[in-house]
Amino acid sequence: MISFFQENTALLEAAGGEKTLSIYKLIMDGGIGGRLILSLLFVLLAVALYIYFERFFAIKTASKIDENFMNQIRDHVSNGRLDAADALCKSKNTPTARLIGKGISRIGKPLDDINTAIETAGKLEVYQLEKNVSVLATISGVAPMIGFLGTVIGMIIAIHEIANAGGQIDIKLLSDGLYTAMTTTVGGLIVGIIAYMTYNHLVVKTDKVVYQMEAKSVEFLDLLNEPV
Description:
cell membrane, mainly alpha, transport, transmembrane helix, 0% strand, protein transport, transmembrane, 84% helix
């Protein structure tokens, strides 16, 4: 009876001592090299998320324009109220309104000059929309490479432990290197995937604003070409 109780107690202790998977423990067990690389990846993730949300709301604001805007511009220009048309553009404070405002300021000059002025202003607006977005593309490529660097460091640590152990393989000795190798790889891939997805989403949103700017610019030039 005592023997049976002791056996069950040993089984319960073994079950209770079973290790559970913890992200925090994986990071802390990865050694100083793994923690440094994961800290760098965390900084890159924070930068990527900041740029994404900052650009997302900026582009969202830039895409908003009154559906009746061009009708009002047409009415003002047709009746020679250029000051009113210019004031309307300034009140909207959007890329499209600024392009139309640039064109209005050139009315009276050759149509090619107006078109050139609008195109130049459009390039500046696109540059402002795409500000810092390229950083996301860089992070999406660099993060997995940094994670792979951690993998290489982890494997070096593991091989070093084996060499110091005189060829006797002990999984406890290898744990730091293996943790570093695995956690940094996963961390780098996660950061890279997030940066890649956010970059492409911003590119799509920016393209929509650019198409809107082009459409309204063409509509404005058509207005100037209409017979008086």
